[in-house]
Structure formats: structure tokens, C-alpha cells
């Protein structure tokens, strides 16, 4: 596929997003940006959340991961289901009861300002890193296949310009209506992403002369379809670790994450938000399985066609889609799916970062509408700049599988959130707040150290996704040590919050 076609697709795609933004941003104000005026249809939110949850990381990295980890990732996905049930019946009722805009306002009500800002700070770190990883992955693909051969003033098109252009386009279509626009653009982007995967599966099956039912029972797939890894409990990918880790990843990266919860809280009421979560979680399992099937097909097709496996297997899908003999239709749908996967998570991340910083740190809700809009717009620009800087840094530092990096980092940064929310929900005690920030930072550093030396310290034990559980548990214990039993009048207030 030529650079001209790729750039033309990019222009057409963003023109479509701008059209959606135009219609959704009419009469928009700060409440439209933060909550969508709480009028989002639950089924639209549910469908759009699929794309936001999967993102460019899943779109590229999960298929590229299949050769090494087989289908064991499905145990993580099954764990997600348990986590989503906790969100549906424990966290969503709490958020709707308190009528929060930022979910970290719960920590302020339950403990106080320092806990509130500590929770929001760890979200900001988590989401900045997560969004930047996703944008980085897509930016390197666009750079390699679209911009590498373009010269500006006699010099090659720089990677930094690809990143700046990507985030600038996101800023343009989200700066007015925020979450209201994103609910609808995510729906379109999810559709493009699923079409790309479905067409990819169909076209590769056609090339290797197999139907889907024949492929399911073929000898080729038997090399990849191991779901349960149970031979060594000390290893990272033991199925129990993956299942439990998946459950807590879902709780933290969805239920304790402003990005994902902001979409849920834009629904009309709690009942609609719960219907959204249940339907979304079931469909997400099926979609992840389809991604793993695609991964197996990519490696099988590469072997049969003599296509060299890239050193970074993240690039296998784009290599085959754009440079093989699958045709223009595959290349176009892949590119649309890739862009959609990236921006369905990046746009909502930018909005949620703006929301959290504006509400949790700048107390925007206490200001006039005119000041709210001014602060919100400036914060939106600031967060865009931060994402640009972090993505460029990742381009110089990252050398591992992106999805593995993302989930490992989440084990460090989401742990304090898990500990804080768990302590608030399952304990009646109050905290000596001045110690909360130090406790959360200290535990995070301790977890990092333990993970680095776990094999030496723990008789060969390797942490997997259960690192998040361990982090949350240590945070909970440390918070208990700086807590005290409140008097009866405070306990009555706590009952109301629970």
C-alpha cells in the first residue's frame, strides 16, 4: 500500500470523527465534557467500551503474542468476567449513590483530601503510562508504513511529528464535548476494529483453504491453543495466577479507573450502567478469543507463505496486512482497525486525564461555568503535551512486548488504588491521612524491588499478573497500621457512604 493511500485514509477517517464531534458538541458545556449530561444510551456505551478496552495494544500485541504464550491469555480474560461482576454490583452502585464525576471523589468523602489526591495521582500516572504505550505502538506502525519515506525540507519525517500530529487530531475532536463525543466515536472505532479482525480471519482462512470450523479442529491450531498452563506454579503464566490476576486487573483498570468509569457514569442511571457492564463483559470474552484465533492464523500463514517473523512480533499483523498478497481490502481494513483501536482508547484517556486533574486537583466544580471552561481547556492542552513527551520517551526506551509492559506497570501503579478503595469499602476505620501518600509510594517501590528479585528471594517464584493483588494487599495492611477506630458520630457518616 502506498503512502498516499495510507495518508488519504487517515484524512478521511479523521474527517468522519470531526463530523461526529460537530453534531455531539452542539450546546456543549463543562458538564457535557465530563458526564455527557448523563444521557448516553447504555448499549452505545457498551459497544464503544469494547474498543476502548482492547485498544491498539490488543489489536497488535495479542496476535503477536500467540507464538510464545499460546492461548493462555484466555485465562486472564476469564478472570476479567469476575472482575466485571464486582464492578457491576459493588462499585457502580457506590459511584451512582454518591453522584460523583471523578470516582476518586469517593476517597475524599471516605477519608479526606490527602487520600483523594493520592488516589487521583496514581490514576494519572497509570493512565498516562497506559495511554502512552498504546499511542506509541500505533505511532511506530504509522511511522514505519506511512511516513518513513516522506521527507520534510530534505530530512526524513521525524517520529516526534507523527506523535504530535496524532495527539493534535485527538485534541481537536474532543476539546468541546469530551465524553459525549467519545461515547459515539468509540462506537464507530469499535466497529472498524472488529471488521478488521473479522476480515483478517476470513481472508487468511481463504488463503490456506480452510473453513473456520475446519480450522478449529485442524492440526495447525493445536500448536497454539493451549489455554491452561499448569505444569509449574512458580512460573508467570500458571493458569491460577492468570485467572486471579485477570479478575483484579479488570477491577483496577476498569472499576478504579476514571477513564473507563467515566463512560459508565455517563449512562442515564445505575440500571443502565449495569446492563452496559454485563453485556460488554460477555462480548469482550468472545472478541479476545477472536484476536487469539487471528494470532494463530497469522503465524500459520507466515510459515506457509515463507514470510519472515519480525523480531518484534507486535509487527507481524501489520507486516502481513500491508505487505503480503492478501490484497488492498485487507490493508485498508487493517489500517482503519489499527487507527480505531488506538484512538478509541487514547481519546478517552485524554478526556479522563483532563477530568481527573480538573476535578481532583483544581476543584473545578466550585467555579463558575466560564472559569470551568477556561480551566478545562488549558488542562486538556497540558495533558496532550504530557502524552506527546511520554510517547517520545518510550520510543527511545521500550524494547519489550507492549502488552506485557502495560500490565506489569499496572501492577505497580494500580495497587495503591486497589488498597485504598478496598480499605474504604471493607473497613470501618479512619486513616491518619498525612501518612497515606508516603505509604502508597513506599509500597509501590517495595513491590518493584520484590518483583525484581522474586526468584532469588522466593525460591524461584516468578510474579505474573497476581502482582497487582499482592500490591493491593500490602497497601491494605499498611493502611490498617496507620488507621484508628472512629467515634460513633463518624461511624454513622460512614454507613451513609457505604
Strand order of the largest sheet: 1-2
Largest sheet: 2 strands, antiparallel
Count the DSSP helices: 21
Helix/strand structural class: mainly alpha
What do you see in this structure?
- The chain has helices at 3-24, 30-35, 42-69, 73-98, 105-110, 113-147, 159-174, 179-207, 212-216, 239-255, 258-264, 270-305, 316-323, 328-361, 369-397, 402-413, 415-426, 436-452, 454-457, 467-481, 488-497; strands at 151-152, 155-156, 430-431, 483-484.
- With 498 residues, it is an all-alpha fold.
- Helix content is 75%, strand content 2%.
- It has a two-stranded antiparallel sheet with strand order 1-2.
- The model has no long low-confidence stretch (mean pLDDT 85).
Provide a short characterization of the protein structure.
The protein is about 75% helix and about 0% strand. It has 21 helices and four strands. The strands form two sheets. It has a two-stranded antiparallel ribbon with strand order 1-2.
Give the tags.
498 residues; mainly alpha; two-stranded antiparallel sheet; 21 helices; globular
Describe the secondary-structure layout:
Layout: H1 3-24, H2 30-35, H3 42-69, H4 73-98, H5 105-110, H6 113-147, E1 151-152, E2 155-156, H7 159-174, H8 179-207, H9 212-216, H10 239-255, H11 258-264, H12 270-305, H13 316-323, H14 328-361, H15 369-397, H16 402-413, H17 415-426, E3 430-431, H18 436-452, H19 454-457, H20 467-481, E4 483-484, H21 488-497
Antiparallel strand pairs: 1-2, 3-4
Helix pairs in contact: 1-7, 1-8, 1-14, 3-6, 3-8, 3-12, 3-14, 4-10, 4-12, 6-7, 6-14, 6-15, 6-16, 7-14, 7-15, 8-12, 8-14, 11-14, 13-14, 14-15, 16-20, 17-20, 18-20
Amino acid at each position: 500500500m502506498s503512502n498516499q493511500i495510507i495518508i488519504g485514509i487517515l484524512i478521511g477517517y479523521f474527517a468522519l470523527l470531526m463530523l461526529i464531534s460537530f453534531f455531539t458538541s452542539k450546546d456543549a458545556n463543562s458538564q457535557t465534557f465530563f458526564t455527557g449530561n448523563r444521557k448516553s444510551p447504555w448499549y452505545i456505551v457498551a459497544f464503544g467500551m469494547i474498543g476502548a478496552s482492547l485498544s491498539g495494544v490488543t489489536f497488535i500485541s495479542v496476535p503477536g503474542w500467540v507464538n510464545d504464550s499460546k492461548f493462555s491469555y484466555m485465562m486472564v480474560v476469564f478472570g476479567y468476567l469476575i472482575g466485571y461482576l464486582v464492578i457491576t454490583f459493588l462499585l457502580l452502585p457506590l459511584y451512582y449513590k454518591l453522584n460523583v464525576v471523578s470516582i476518586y471523589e469517593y476517597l475524599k468523602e471516605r477519608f479526606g483530601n490527602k487520600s483523594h489526591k493520592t488516589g487521583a495521582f496514581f490514576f494519572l500516572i497509570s493512565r498516562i503510562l497506559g495511554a502512552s504505550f498504546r499511542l506509541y505502538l500505533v505511532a511506530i506502525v504509522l511511522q514505519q508504513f506511512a511516513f518513513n519515506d516522506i521527507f520534510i525540507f530534505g530530512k526524513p519525517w521525524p517520529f516526534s511529528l507523527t506523535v504530535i500530529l496524532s495527539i493534535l487530531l485527538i485534541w481537536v475532536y474532543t476539546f468541546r464535548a469530551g465524553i459525549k463525543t467519545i461515547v459515539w466515536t468509540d462506537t464507530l472505532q469499535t466497529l472498524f476494529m472488529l471488521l478488521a479482525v473479522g476480515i483478517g480471519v476470513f481472508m487468511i482462512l481463504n488463503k490456506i483453504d480452510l473453513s473456520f470450523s475446519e480450522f478449529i479442529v485442524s492440526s495447525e491450531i493445536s500448536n497454539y491453543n493451549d489455554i491452561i498452563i499448569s505444569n509449574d506454579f512458580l512460573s508467570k503464566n500458571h493458569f491460577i495466577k492468570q485467572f486471579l490476576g485477570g479478575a483484579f486487573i479488570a477491577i483496577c483498570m476498569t472499576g478504579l479507573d476514571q477513564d473507563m468509569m467515566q463512560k459508565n457514569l455517563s449512562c442515564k442511571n445505575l440500571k443502565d450502567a449495569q446492563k452496559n457492564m454485563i453485556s460488554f463483559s460477555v462480548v469482550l470474552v468472545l472478541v479476545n478469543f477472536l484476536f487469539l484465533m487471528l494470532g494463530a492464523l497469522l503465524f500459520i500463514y507466515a510459515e506457509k507463505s515463507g514470510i519472515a517473523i519480525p523480531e518484534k512480533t507486535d509487527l507481524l499483523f501489520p507486516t502481513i496486512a500491508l505487505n503480503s498478497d492478501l490484497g488492498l481490502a485487507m490493508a485498508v481494513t487493517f489500517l482503519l482497525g489499527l487507527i480505531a483501536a488506538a484512538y478509541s482508547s487514547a481519546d478517552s484517556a485524554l478526556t479522563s486525564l483532563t477530568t481527573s486533574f480538573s476535578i481532583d486537583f483544581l476543584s473545578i466544580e466550585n467555579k463558575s461555568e466560564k472559569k470551568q471552561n477556561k480551566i478545562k481547556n488549558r488542562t486538556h492542552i497540558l495533558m496532550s503535551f504530557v502524552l506527546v513527551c511520554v510517547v517520545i520517551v518510550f520510543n527511545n526506551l521500550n524494547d519489550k512486548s507492549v502488552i506485557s509492559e502495560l500490565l506489569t506497570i499496572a501492577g505497580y501503579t494500580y495497587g495503591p488504588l486497589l488498597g485504598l478503595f478496598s480499605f474504604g469499602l471493607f473497613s470501618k476505620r479512619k486513616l491518619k491521612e498525612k501518612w497515606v501518600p508516603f505509604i502508597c509510594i513506599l509500597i509501590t517501590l517495595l513491590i518493584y524491588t520484590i518483583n525484581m528479585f522474586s526468584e532469588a528471594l522466593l525460591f524461584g517464584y516468578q510474579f505474573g499478573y497476581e502482582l497487582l493483588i499482592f500490591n493491593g494487599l500490602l497497601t491494605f495492611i499498611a493502611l490498617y497500621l496507620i488507621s484508628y477506630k472512629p467515634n460513633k458520630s463518624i461511624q454513622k457518616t460512614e454507613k451513609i457512604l457505604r
